[in-house]
Design brief:
Blueprint (H helix, E strand, L loop, with lengths): L4 H15 L8 H14 L5 H8 L2 H11 L10 H11 L6 E4 L6 H12 L6 E5 L3 H7 L6 H12 L12 E4 L2 E4 L7 E4 L11 E6 L8 H13 L1 E9 L12 E7 L2 E4 L4
Parallel strand pairs: 1-2, 1-6, 2-5, 6-7
Antiparallel strand pairs: 3-4, 7-9, 8-9
Helix pairs in contact: 5-6
Length: about 260
């Protein structure tokens, strides 16, 4: 269905009001592509029909879920995970935050790294604006081709005496993550920018902001900064830029999007 510019802007306003995510501050080109895709997937021919779906809580959550851009690999950018593991070995009482959740690939990659690094008693908080995304994590099926890429990435981590098979189960139509890995994970069905500020030792927000306009990106970076303790590790996408300067962030420690907040003398 063809959507006029005014229709798209009005849809963004309606979605912001209903779902609680500031879609009005998403990059217009991305939002237009995503909404057009949703209209096609749901066979919507009238804007008013879309608004009727938004009025239903379950349908609105499904729309929020469809707005998410799924991760395409497990252990994507192996050098980043390898560096992170070195920085976390034998850490205790680690507080971790993933501000966004899509299909769980990033989360389970992190959980495997924490286990391999022998991190003691990690607490992991995961936010998602879609309850469907949260529910799907426990039942996600990894297609064979995605698993093959994950195996290749895992091998590049150069972890002695470990295998990706220790973290997945074979199922009829692919692979699934071991649910036992989720015991220290707290899921929150809330957009991360609407959360109260908490402090974390590790924040993984890779490619979480590339769909935002500059103003929203700056606000998001400020929120991440407010959530960082001294020596907090911040991980962003390798192609993302920190539009807002985070105080005491040592950019010299950057490696594949990894930064450390510390007191710089």
């Amino acid at each position: 269905m063809f959507l006029a510019i005014n229709d798209i802007k009005e849809i963004a306003v309606k979605m912001t009001e209903t779902i609680g995510v500031e879609y009005t501050s998403y990059r217009f080109s991305f939002f237009r592509r995503r909404i057009s895709k949703i209209f096609d997937e749901l066979h919507i021919n009238k804007v008013q029909d879309f608004y009727s779906l938004l009025a239903n809580k379950k349908s609105a959550d499904d729309i929020a879920y469809r707005m998410l851009v799924a991760d395409t690999e497990m252990f994507r950018d192996p050098s980043m995970w390898r560096q992170m593991r070195k920085m976390l070995i034998d850490r205790q009482q680690l507080n971790v935050w993933l501000p966004t959740l899509t299909n769980g690939y990033e989360l389970f990659s992190l959980l495997a790294i924490l286990k391999q690094a022998n991190v003691k008693s990690p607490r992991i908080v995961v936010n998602s604006e879609s309850q469907q995304a949260i529910d799907n994590v426990r039942n996600v099926v990894i297609p064979a081709k995605i698993h093959e890429v994950g195996v290749s990435n895992f091998e590049r981590l150069e972890l002695a005496d470990d295998s990706i098979d220790n973290y997945v189960d074979v199922v009829s139509d692919g692979y699934s993550f071991k649910n036992s890995m989720l015991e220290n994970v707290e899921f929150r069905n809330k957009w991360f920018l609407s959360e109260a500020v908490e402090r974390y030792d590790l924040i993984i927000a890779r490619n979480a902001m590339i769909y935002y306009d500059n103003s929203l990106q700056e606000r998001a970076i400020k929120r991440l900064s407010e959530s960082m303790e001294r020596n907090t590790i911040l991980c962003i996408g390798v192609k993302e830029q920190l539009l807002y300067k985070i105080p005491n962030l040592n950019t010299k420690t950057s490696a594949d999007g990894l930064y450390v907040k510390e007191l710089i003398v």
